[in-house]
């Protein structure tokens, strides 16, 4: 179990989750917790129930060191005590009426995992944009030995946050009035 053994209710979890780019305690993430977190990813909905997202979970210290030595690692990427990688196909075949839902499938899995890790007392961040510039995704794929037909769409570095999440200022969110219409 991570930083806290918390019986957070679901809405506390959704309100506690934030993109954590700070320092983690120097403690590994136990495999049993990684399994719970990635199970939440597997449980996510997916277009046509194709379950297209695949996952690589990195808790090997040597591989973690290699990830952290990637060029221009940002603060979020260099501190993780474990990393969850979400892989999608490079060539995305249509699964329904000419559409494919690989990115949506992946996003649903990522959010489920972020909520799960928050509920377990960990913190992490959705790394996506950073990965898709300067061939970082390819560099990471080489480090972890990802299958050649897959690309790493999202990485979640995680660990026990050195700072209590409730003390971290949250980024402002637009109000309900600005974004929601009840009709
Ligand atoms: C599609 C997507 C891509 C993202 N890519 C990155 C990224 O590359 N690096 C990063 O530090 N945060 C990334 N984030 C996290 C966002 O910056 C963050 O969710 C946003 O600023 C809102 O903050 P919050 O997560 O604390 O609510 C990404 C989030 C999403 C949903």
User: What separation lies between the terminal Cα atoms?
Assistant: 43 Å
- Mean pLDDT, rounded to whole units? 94
Low-confidence stretches: none
The largest pleated sheet is described as:
4 strands, antiparallel
The ordered H/E elements are HHEHHEHEHEH
Helical element count?
A: 7
* Estimated radius of gyration: 17 Å
Helix/strand-derived category reads alpha+beta
User: Quick one: how many beta strands?
Assistant: 4
Shape: globular
Describe the structure using short key phrases.
binds flavin mononucleotide, four-stranded antiparallel β-sheet, globular, 4 strands, 7 helices, alpha+beta, 183 residues, single chain
Can you describe this structure?
α1 crosses α5 and α2 packs across α5. The chain is of the alpha+beta class and 183 residues long. Strands 1-2-4-3 form a four-stranded antiparallel β-sheet, sandwiched between helices. The chain is built from seven helices and four strands; from the N terminus they run ααβααβαβαβα. The chain is globular, with a radius of gyration of 17 Å. The structure holds flavin mononucleotide (FMN).
Offer a concise description of the structure.
The chain has 183 residues and is an alpha+beta fold. The protein contains seven helices and four strands.
Helix-strand blueprint:
Layout: H1 10-16, H2 31-42, E1 54-58, H3 61-68, H4 75-78, E2 82-89, H5 102-119, E3 123-124, H6 136-144, E4 150-159, H7 176-179
Helix pairs in contact: 1-5, 2-5
């Amino acid at each position: 179990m991570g930083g806290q053994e918390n019986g957070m209710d679901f809405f506390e979890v959704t309100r506690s989750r934030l993109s954590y780019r700070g320092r983690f305690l120097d403690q590994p993430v136990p495999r049993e917790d990684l399994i719970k977190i990635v199970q939440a990813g597997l449980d996510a909905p997916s277009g046509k129930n194709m379950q297209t997202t695949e996952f690589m979970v990195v808790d090997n210290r040597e591989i973690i060191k290699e990830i952290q030595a990637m060029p221009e690692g940002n603060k979020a990427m260099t501190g993780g005590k474990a990393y969850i990688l979400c892989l999608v196909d490079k060539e995305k075949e249509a699964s329904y009426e000419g559409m494919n839902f690989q990115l949506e499938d992946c996003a649903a899995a990522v959010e489920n995992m972020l909520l799960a890790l928050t509920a377990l007392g960990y913190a992490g961040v959705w790394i996506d944009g950073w990965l898709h510039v300067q061939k970082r995704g390819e560099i990471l794929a080489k480090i972890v030995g990802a299958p050649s037909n897959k690309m790493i769409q999202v990485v979640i570095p995680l660990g026990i946050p050195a700072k209590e999440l409730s003390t971290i200022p949250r980024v402002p969110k637009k109000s309900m009035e600005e974004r929601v219409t009840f009709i």
